[in-house]
Specification:
Elements: H1 2-34, H2 38-65, E1 68-70, H3 77-90, E2 96-100, E3 107-111, E4 117-122, H4 123-128, H5 131-146, H6 149-176, H7 181-184, H8 188-228, H9 231-244, H10 279-292
Parallel strand pairs: 2-4
Antiparallel strand pairs: 1-2, 3-4
Helix pairs in contact: 1-2, 1-6, 1-8, 2-6, 3-5, 5-8, 5-9, 6-8, 8-9, 8-10, 9-10
Length: 293
């Protein structure tokens, strides 16, 4: 379990580094095209600033768009007790607890750090899971908080949005203004490079975000299993989710990467475009942990 946690942390650091490299490359090519490297500096500063601004505000937005309602212990003593006990076990502050009125089996964690975290679960999850399974799911979500996945997710979300904004803005400048005689004398190769970089950048940024999300799911599975010392509880919960379904009634693609299981309908034509690793692979990894333990 510890080796899987360490390996996924290293891979996520590399993927986050790839984000900043992507922003830098696109910004440099744009500066080369316009022969104005102040654009490069501005793009890098804007992308970084937007990423950090978004992660401060995105938790409230994620809870709002998914109709999550905050509860107290008297509203659902079972859920509250499990979250409280797990928080004490891993030494985390008690997160805010939310419930979503939805028949699907799902949950998510959000917030910028353990002191400002929240966990939200669907009513469907509460109805179908037994205590061991619910504990496994919530240990997974607290694992996201414990490992600061919630921070990584918010920064990644902000960077994807920033890359998209930069690309859209520059495309408009290239085709509807911002050109001068110096730009007209640019090499056709530079122009092609600029267009290709700007068009592909949002797609590549999204792929990096999805890769980060998948790695963090494996990491949270390992952390949750380590917390409960019972990987089978989480594996059984995943089997029920595969059987009952995790697609939310009200779906929001922008927050899909936060959820325990894929909250969107349908299957992607490629695993590259999935926010979550296949459930079968997650169950297999958990069962292997159980065997080795």
């Amino acid at each position: 379990m510890y080796s899987q946690i360490d390996a996924n942390k290293r891979k996520t650091i590399l993927l986050m580094f790839g984000f900043f490299v992507l922003v830098g490359v696109v910004a440099y090519i744009v500066g080369l095209y316009f022969k104005n490297y102040s654009i490069t500096t501005f793009a890098i500063i804007f992308a970084t600033g937007y990423a950090f601004w978004s992660y401060y505000a995105s938790d409230k937005l994620a809870l709002m768009v998914n109709n999550a309602k905050q509860i107290q212990k008297s509203d659902d003593a079972r859920l509250w007790r499990i979250v409280e006990n797990l928080s004490i076990t891993v030494g985390l502050p008690m997160p805010r607890v939310y419930i979503m009125q939805d028949a699907s089996l799902n949950a998510f964690a959000t917030g910028r750090d353990p002191a400002h975290a929240a966990v939200a679960v669907t009513t469907g999850l509460l109805e179908v899971m037994d205590d061991n399974e619910l504990q496994g799911v919530l240990a997974h979500e607290l694992g996201h908080i414990q490992n600061y996945d919630i921070r990584v997710s918010m920064i990644a979300f902000g960077l994807v949005a920033a890359v998209s904004i930069i690309s859209d803005t520059v495309l408009r400048m290239m085709f509807w203004g911002g050109r001068d005689e110096d730009n007209d004398n640019n090499s056709p190769i530079v122009m092609v490079l600029a267009i290709v970089a700007i068009v592909l950048a949002p797609l590549v940024a999204s792929l990096i975000q999805l890769a980060i999300s998948r790695k963090r799911e494996y990491l949270a599975d390992a952390t949750g299993a380590l917390t409960t010392r019972y990987p089978e509880g989480l594996a059984s919960a995943l089997e029920k989710i595969a059987s009952h379904g995790s697609a939310m009634q009200k779906q929001n693609p922008s927050t899909a990467h936060l959820f325990f299981a894929n909250p969107l309908n349908g299957k992607s034509f490629s695993n590259l475009f999935s926010t979550h690793p296949p459930v079968a692979d997650r169950i297999k990894a958990l069962r292997e942990m159980n065997t080795k333990a």
